[in-house]
Amino acid sequence: MTENYYRHIISILPKCDLEDYPPELFMRFAEHGALLRRDWPWCRELSEEMFLSWVLCPRVNNEELSDCRELFYKELAPRVKDLSLTEAILEANRWCAENVTYRSTDIRTASALSVYESGCGRCGEESMFAVNALRSIGVAARQVYAPWWSHCDDNHAWVEAYDGNSWRFLGACEPEPRPDLGWFLPAAGRAMLCHAKCFVGDNEDWERLLPGEDLRQVDLREGVAYISVTQRYAKVRPFTVHITDAAGNSLTGAIVEYYVLNEGLLRKIAERTTDSGGKAVMSLGLGSLWVTARQGDMSAEFLVNTAETGAVELSLPQRDSVPASFDFLPPEGSSVKPLALSEPERLKRQKALNRAKELYDSHHPGGGSVPKKPRLWPWERFPAGEVPELWQDGSAHDTSGPVGKLTLCRGQGKGAVGLMRWKEGWWAVTMPPGTEAELPAGKYRLITSVRLPSGAQLGRLTDFTLAPDEPTELAVSFRKASPNDLLQKLPLPDPGFSFRGPALLCWIDPGAEPTEHLLNELKAFGEFPCPIHFICRQPKAAFGPGITPHPWEEYAAETMARRLFQEPGHLPLAVLADKEGCARFVSAGYNVGLIELAAELCGLIK
């Protein structure tokens, strides 16, 4: 059995893994897998294919591999051996919270062992760590992630675990009293794509490793099966791209790439190859999508809103130019909503969080350290232009060939700025405004975007060709939003107190910036046009006329931020609420002129 598991492992992993790691490491994964299959009932009950794909496999995503499973097993097995499978999944996540917390790090993914030893990691590292913890005790688990959000400039990863009947989701290192809870659920409901990776290697019968999966939602690239699970979290529709030549004939084998606008850049979220009818079909969320198609030297692109249409036809080569100004709209949201926590569940959750923090602080006095990262960035292990997709970061790293000089001038306005290079698809180029650089000659695109509170973006693009040895100068410019563009309508969760709208609700931290900046703006403004409610940990007896103080309630504050697609703790959090109890405008952190803008918007919603 162990030998068979070893052979399977080396057949599914990327070829470079077999060069980077000793065979003994893969044998230890095989030996541990055999132990789980023999001794743990819930692991024995899995089909062979489920076990191979979601328990035995050493790799979760693009992390550095480490010999972690036996260590995690020794920590977790005594805690879960007498529990039901569902309770074991929840208990394992509590253990994860006791040992690892969130910290933003660079995009090289540390090993599960390094994350455990340091006590922190970004969401991709937390979820990779949690998947390894679950697999160490024989639970089928996988990382799920939205490659890039459409409604905000970020992305996120979480965990799905199989409870014997179905996949259940949970936030990694974020203990909850039951499965299918997580702050990210409203955000996932606005995703264009959520998917998981299954490593299948060069196996011709790779489909058998995915029992129960809809193979129409699976894309195989470089030995990795990308499984779309978007329909579990968001409203989706089948979306068809039909590729033809100039004469209208369908093109087989054309590459279709799907992008969303994030941080001023076209971020690739998926890829398909057209079938014998020239079509590529996949289910996607309901929002804006930038689609490109290419075959040989021919290419075309199109901006489409999948909420309005389920199909688009692209003709190669492109005849029409793309729009210089465009609106990029995120999905509105999902109808998937978890049941609210009961009071006993809220108390259980808070007790688990307090316990996790207490144990974490004892394990990592001072808050842990940055995880030890691989020495090389993933793409540095490969020749330029030959980086497998698994290790790509969406940036162009090939700088060979003739170069031209580009100067990017600063402009008026505020928003995201992105520079992209076309080289068999769009690739990001790192170049801040106000700088100049020598770049490979070729086709480029400058994009600026203004993110509205609704998550929609006002985009502007400039296409240009950078010629060898010829200086090019470009100025950054942004589209301007109107006051009505800044309004939205998001139902508010219970803030922990009653109010009558319109009202300005502010979660603040007096004495700290940027809260003090907001207080100074409010003092200078004078009489605000609606009641104000301040929520803080040490509320003063009075902040001034028209202001009502409220005590801080951690659960309510976190829930409020998450439901409004903001990061908890990013203060001040200011919410302009209407009479119907909906947020019409939201701001978090340092924003100059916030009080004046909120007053203007208040007049529009009264």
Give a description of the structure.
By secondary structure, the protein is α+β, with helices and mostly antiparallel strands. It is 25% helix and 28% strand. It contains 14 helices and 29 strands. The strands form seven sheets. It has a six-stranded antiparallel β-sheet. β10 and β11 (265-273) form a beta hairpin. α7 (85-99) crosses α11 and α8 packs across α9 (123-136). The longest helix has 21 residues, at 343-363. The chain is globular and about 75 Å long. The relative contact order is 0.09. The mean pLDDT is 92.
Secondary-structure map:
Elements: H1 2-12, H2 15-20, H3 23-39, H4 41-44, H5 48-56, H6 69-80, H7 85-99, E1 101-102, H8 112-118, E2 120-121, H9 123-136, E3 141-146, E4 156-162, E5 167-170, H10 185-188, E6 195-199, E7 218-221, E8 224-228, E9 236-245, E10 255-262, E11 265-273, E12 279-285, E13 288-295, E14 298-305, E15 311-316, E16 325-328, H11 343-363, E17 403-409, E18 416-422, E19 426-429, E20 435-440, E21 442-451, E22 457-466, E23 472-475, E24 490-491, E25 503-507, H12 515-525, E26 532-536, E27 547-551, H13 554-563, E28 573-577, E29 582-588, H14 594-605
